[in-house]
Amino acid sequence: MPTLRLDLLALMASLCALLGSNAGAGGLKTGDTFPDLQAAGLEGHCPADLKGKTVLVDFWASWCGPCKQSFPVMEELHKQYGPRGLVIIAISVDQNKRDMADFLKKNPVSFAVLRDAAQKLVARVDVAAMPSSFLLDGQGKVRFIHTGFHGAETRKEYERQIESLLGK
User: By three-state DSSP, how is residue 96 classified?
Assistant: First the structure.
């Protein structure tokens, strides 16, 4: 059993490195229009009308350590900025729905959580690492991109960027 656990940890580390190696290889850039989430074939309930809203789209996975740290921060951002127009949509890349459900039991949130089981949106956006997030303006344009999660530093960046898009 310990060998299986070490093999699984090595596989997860390799996958993180592989995902991270795509950085700068293309994908969405600041100023690009984010793909239509309603048409992306995602599982779950996507908020209906995002036009005119500031939207934080976060790609995550149950096996991602930094995602466990980012979820409480995003929940706090949702509570803080949701009344002012911020919509947070977390998109799981887990292929197994149960893995996502188990993660959410341990890390409950009140913002929208969807699943890209077929990995179509992930491929189209060319997600560089887990977690990766895209902060969109009211026209659906990518204004800020975050790769990874670095605790208080990332939280401060989110707050500054969200404030700039919502206006004070």
Answer: coil
Structure confidence by residue, pLDDT tens digits, 130-139: 999 999 999 9
Residues 83 and 137: their CA atoms lie apart, in Å, by: 16
CATH assignment at residue 19 = 3.40.30.10
Catalytic residue IDs: 64, 67
Q: Which tokens sit at 69?
A: 């740290």
pLDDT digits (tens, 9 = 90+) for 24-59: 345 889 999 999 998 888 999 999 889 899 999 999
The residue type found at 109 is V
The tokens for 38 are 């309603």
Sign of the C-alpha dihedral computed for residues 25, 157, 167 and 79 taken in this order: positive
How many domains are there within the chain? 1
